[in-house]
Amino acid sequence: MKHRLGLAVTAAVLALVLPTASAVADPRDDKSKVDDRVKELQQEFEGLDEDLARVIAERDEAQEKLPDAEAESKAADDALAEAIEKDQDMAARLTSAENAQKDLKSSIKSGTEEIGKHKTSAARIGRQAYQNSGITSDLAMLLQMAEGTSADGGIGRVDSAVRSQQRTIDKLSEQRALNKNNEERLSGVTEKISDLKDEAAEAVVAKEAAQVDAKKKADSLNDLISAKDDAEKTISDNKATTEKQLADEKAEQDRLAKKVREWEKEQEKKGNFTFGDGVLANPAKGYPITSPFGYRIHPITGAKKLHSGTDFGVPCGTPIHAAGDGVVVGAGWTGGYGNRVVVSHGKIKGDSIASTYNHNTKVKVHAGQKVKKGDVISISGTTGASTGCHLHFEIMKNGGYVNPMPYIS
Ligand SMILES: [Zn+2]
Questions:
Q1: Protein fold of 2-237
Q2: Domain boundaries in the chain?
Q3: How many angstroms separate the CA atoms of 257 and 356, rounded?
Q4: Residue 358 Cα to ligand 1 middle (Å)
Q5: What share of the chain is helix, strand, coil (3-state, %, to 5)?
Q6: In 3D, which of 140, 165, 166, 171 has the Cα closest to residue 155?
Q7: DSSP state of 274
């Protein structure tokens, strides 16, 4: 019984001490997860500083882990409260059993004294009765009674003495039964105390393990909260600078678009503003789209931002081909776009369409040059506001940035 109980408690202690599956997650998994997110963020937001992207990824990671960490910390606190209660309960039960043991020992001691007294008293009554009656032995008394020769006084005295002796003997046997019962109870209580001491010791160990666990879970939670707060602060500290940078990029984008639009308007006035068959081809055929055209919320400014083209995962040094026949409107360095080539394809289905190729290592054409669909116009790279080799490809429709994919697929 004792042994089984110990094992059960040990199992409970182990369950407390052993970390849960989520707590043993390999930190390298977190690292690679953050690394992946950094890459993703930098693809999604070209030119986003790597350190800032990391801060955002770490903030998101902390945010994602918070609910579990909160739940784990709460569960550990609850387990600790339970362990403390169990510890206190065991201590109280042990004290109560020890008090019962003390009481029983004292009852047995006084019972033993009582038995001693009754024994002496019974013996004395017996002796006195015989002495007073003049009867010298039990046999003589019985003979006298049978013959009717015994003096009444003598028998009466013997009779009363026998009754008194009987009462003493009754008390004696009652006390003996009581003592026997108390001794059995004492043995039970003593065994129980031994079990309770084991259980109380286990409860102390469990409580201490629960304290360690609760502290660990609380520390993890606090670490996450600090990591998140620190990241939020860095993000907020960089908000104004990022807003300025994005506004500058947007202004540059608008300025470049306006320039192209002005050039197109001049050509439109001249008439016959068409080149080739008006069908465009993918300039980076076979390479994956790493970031599509469209609006997204910027992770630092929290504002909507247009990704003005389609990004293709083209390695640096790859020849880039003109999407269609046309005239080069611009070729060269433009800041955020790095080395950029703009090709006008003239009127396609009533709209003036131009394509742009950005972040090149090198441009292979010059403004005013006529190009054919598929001609190599540049060599891909990661110049300007770019954090990795790719082609940022744009389509401008009447001077506005539109989704390139319907034009090239
Ligand atoms: Zn892009």
A1: Helix Hairpins (1.10.287)
A2: 2-237, 239-408
A3: 10
A4: 8
A5: 65, 15, 20
A6: 140
A7: B
- Per-residue pLDDT of 276-324, as tens digits, reads 888 999 999 999 999 999 999 999 999 999 999 999 999 999 999 999 9
Supply 285's token pair.
């055929």
Compute, in angstroms, the gap from residue 390 CA to the centroid of ligand 1.
8
Is the alpha carbon torsion for 354, 358, 362, 367 positive or negative? Answer: positive
Ligand 1 centroid to residue 297 C-alpha, Å = 15
pLDDT, tens digit, for every residue of 117-127? 888 888 887 77
Q: What spacing in Å lies between the alpha carbon of 242 and ligand 1's midpoint?
A: 17
Measured in Å, residue 259 CA sits from the centre of ligand 1 at 20
Distance 381 CA to ligand 1 centre (A): 12
**What CATH architecture applies to the domain 239-408?**
Distorted Sandwich (2.70)
Centre of ligand 1 to C-alpha 43, Å, is: 8
Q: Are the C-beta atoms of 352 and 399 separated by less than 8 Å?
A: yes
228: Cβ contacts below 8 Å, ≥ 6 apart? 59, 62, 63, 66
Interaxial angle between packed helices 152-237 and 138-147, expressed in degrees from 0 to 180 and rounded to the nearest 10: 130
CA of 394 relative to ligand 1 center, distance in Å = 8
Is 0.90 surpassed by the pTM of this model? Answer: no
Cβ atoms of 358 and 309 within 8 Å: the answer is yes
What is the CA(308)–ligand 1 centre distance, in A? 7
Q: How far is the CA of 288 from the centre of ligand 1 (A)?
A: 13
